[in-house]
Amino acid sequence: MAASVAAIARPADTALLFPGQGSHDANARGHVELHAPSLLERCVSLVGEDPFPRAGESTRFAQPAIFLASLSRYWSAPPAGDVIAFAGHSLGEITALTAAGALTPEDALHVVVERGRLMGEAQAGGMVVVRTDADTAAELAAATGTVVANDNGPGQVVLSGTERAIAGVKPLAQSRGIKARRLDVAGAFHSPLMRQAARGLRGVLADLPVHRPSAPVLCCATARPFHDVRAQLALAVTSPVRWREVLDVLDARGVRRFIDVGPGDVLSGLVRRTLPHAETVEVGDALVA
């Protein structure tokens, strides 16, 4: 289902979701140029080049491109009713904090560009998705020397680790009848192998101005609302993304309508997998000039 945010949002039970890496849209740059031209210009200056043509090459380019794509969609059609919560998957946390007014777009963009650079420099290891439950995934992680990096929802857990550790996941999983697939990323994101990136990011975040958000923004590392944005954004780089728990908490808080601002429809799919009773709306390409 695709619709304008303004057309479908109703008060009192809506949460806005913002995606992380892996959510791409070939038409995103044009939308950003139309709705956030000054921020795009600033992004090109900070990155050193336009990130959109190279978004598929490295997290250094993917992160600012996805941030701009999501934020421009939000700006082009803000919700008509009250939003009771915001959440973002990994990188999307920064977009969610920006949409909620906790960070200015300019400050957030600076953090995103530096986050992408630092994580891109830590290119050790990799990630693999296993189609099983969280407990079984944890057993696979313990047996292979990997760690659980993303608990995205029922039947979708991502493990991170060194190249050697990751290489052992697929054969072990298949021996137990579990599907496993290596992800096309150049790093063991959300694992201890990102410690150096987290240290660098703490320096970037040290003087970041943080404002009171318009509604709670959930942190993926704790599955609770942010209470220390600077510390928790740095923590997130090495901590698992507890997305299944984030959705459960939003459901318990009374959210019944989840708007996936996009790009892409990854998050609405995870909502349907985790909360089949909830209403999902995919904004995506429906946000046009």
Question: What is the topology?
Answer:
Elements: H1 5-8, E1 14-18, H2 28-35, H3 37-47, H4 59-76, E2 83-88, H5 92-99, H6 105-121, E3 126-130, H7 134-144, E4 147-153, E5 156-161, H8 163-167, H9 169-175, E6 180-182, H10 195-205, E7 217-219, E8 224-225, H11 229-236, H12 243-252, E9 257-260, H13 266-274, E10 279-282
Parallel strand pairs: 1-2, 1-9, 2-7, 9-10
Antiparallel strand pairs: 3-5, 3-6, 4-5, 7-8
Helix pairs in contact: 2-3, 2-4, 3-4, 3-6, 4-5, 4-6, 5-6, 6-10, 10-11
Can you give a write-up of this model?
It is a single chain. This protein has 289 residues and is α/β, with parallel strands linked by helices. The protein has two domains: 213 residues, Malonyl-Coenzyme A Acyl Carrier Protein, domain 2 (3-Layer(aba) Sandwich); 57 residues, Alpha-Beta Plaits (2-Layer Sandwich). The protein has 13 helices and ten strands. The protein starts with a helix and ends in a 7-residue tail after the last strand. The relative contact order is 0.19.
